[in-house]
Design goal:
The structure is a single chain. By secondary structure, this protein is mainly alpha-helical. The chain is 44% helix and 8% strand. It is elongated, with a radius of gyration of 25 Å. 24% of the residues are buried. The strands form 2 sheets. The chain has a two-stranded antiparallel ribbon. The protein has a two-stranded antiparallel sheet with strand order 3-4. The chain has a domain at 3-116: hpI Integrase, Chain A.
């Protein structure tokens, strides 16, 4: 892999792996990355308003690539120019275009950052934790602009909830009714407890 391609791939790895904003990647230095592969994001865009400093673990998938890049690059910046100088935000975007062309897909730092958050949401990480990892001051920004659970993930979570509810008691008013979802309803005169028309049935007199 040529030097320009390696630098571009390293920029993608850090941005995608840690969910960095362009400005955060621009001012990140090697000293921010610990031996335990925890990156301290100190130079935060919007600090004091919508941005918060944070620490993020670099995923193991990207570590070998970054080791190769660090062995062949110089300078204090995490991602630097060929001469070791700190890159401007425009230069970082041009560097990213190299990886975009090689992959044959459109890439920019916002896409990579959104993908970072969405992957963790789809993996089941709660939105509060994802919000902290993305450096948001509130979860509202995370939920509205970046991360929404995919339809397939939502169905999986619903299925898990339904499985956990099987056989449990459901409290209604002052009484308790047992919905045993494990029984067979075939040939039974009982209404299906999961039927959309269940809520229209008249409640028992004791409720």
């Amino acid at each position: 892999m040529a030097g320009a391609e390696l630098r571009s791939a390293a920029a993608v790895a850090v941005s995608l792996g840690c969910g960095l904003r362009t400005q955060e990647l621009q001012y990140a230095v090697r000293a921010d990355l610990g031996a335990d592969w925890v990156l301290k994001v100190e130079h935060v865009k919007g600090r004091g308003t919508y941005g918060e400093p944070r620490s993020v673990i670099v995923p193991p998938l990207f570590r070998p690539l970054l080791v190769r890049y660090f062995e062949r690059s110089c300078g204090l910046a995490l991602i630097s120019s060929a001469s070791g100088a700190t890159l401007s935000s425009n230069s970082l975007r041009k560097i990213l275009s190299v990886a975009s062309a090689a992959a044959g897909v459109f890439l920019d730092f916002r896409v990579l950052r959104r993908t970072f958050g969405q992957c963790y949401i789809d993996a089941g990480l709660d939105v509060e934790t994802v919000s902290v990892l993305m450096g948001h001051s509130t979860t509202r920004t995370t939920e509205y602009y970046y991360c929404r659970r995919s339809k397939s993930a939502a169905l999986q979570r619903q299925s898990g909830i339904l499985d956990s509810l099987a056989g449990e008691k459901v409290s209604a008013g002052g009484g308790v009714r047992t919905l045993d979802l494990r029984i067979s309803l075939e040939g039974s005169n009982r209404p299906n407890p999961m039927s959309p028309t269940l809520h229209q049935a008249k409640p028992p007199r004791h409720l």
